[in-house]
């Protein structure tokens, strides 16, 4: 009897899951075919028009250039870009420049070996 009830419960759960998935698919496809019913459509009211800000008639480039210069100056000041580079940083940059060949060469050799193997495999 326990075996029968556990099997009945399993079958009912499976049917419930199938029903839920089918219902979800049915409603999602219905929403897609008839358009987006959830989309909000708003028309401006007289109150909203009173909050609109009129745009001034002026040349924006001069204002933007002034703002950009201020931003660049602020960044330069905050990051201390006017100070000279520290000697340890200069040594590090030079070591990277000098050793970049050692880092790139193994990758080139691996790529060449891979292309050589690919061309020899195709010939066989």
Summarize the structure in words.
With 124 residues, the chain is mostly helical. The chain is 75% helix and 0% strand. It has helices at 2-33, 46-50, 60-78, 87-123. It is flat. The mean pLDDT is 77.
Quick tags:
single chain, 124 residues, mainly alpha, flat
Radius of gyration: 35 Å
First-to-last CA distance: 66 Å
Mean pLDDT: 77
What percent of residues adopt helix (DSSP H or I)?
Answer: over 70%
Low-confidence stretches: none
Structural class: mainly alpha
Strand content of the residues, in percent? under 5%
SSE pattern, N- to C-terminal: HHHH
Overall body shape: flat
**Total number of beta strands:** 0
- Number of helices in the DSSP assignment: 4
Task: State the major sheet.
Answer: none
């Amino acid at each position: 009897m326990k075996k029968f009830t556990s099997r009945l419960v399993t079958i009912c759960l499976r049917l419930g899951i199938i029903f839920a998935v089918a219902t979800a698919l049915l409603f999602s496809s219905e929403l897609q075919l008839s358009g987006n019913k959830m989309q909000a459509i708003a028309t401006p009211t007289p109150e909203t028009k009173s909050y609109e800000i009129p745009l001034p008639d002026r040349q924006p480039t001069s204002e933007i250039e002034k703002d950009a210069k201020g931003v660049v100056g602020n960044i330069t000041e905050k990051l201390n870009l006017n100070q000279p580079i520290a000697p340890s940083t200069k040594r590090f940059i030079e070591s990277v420049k000098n050793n970049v060949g050692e880092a790139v060469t193994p990758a080139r050799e691996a790529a060449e070996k891979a292309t050589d193997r690919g061309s020899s495999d195709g010939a066989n």
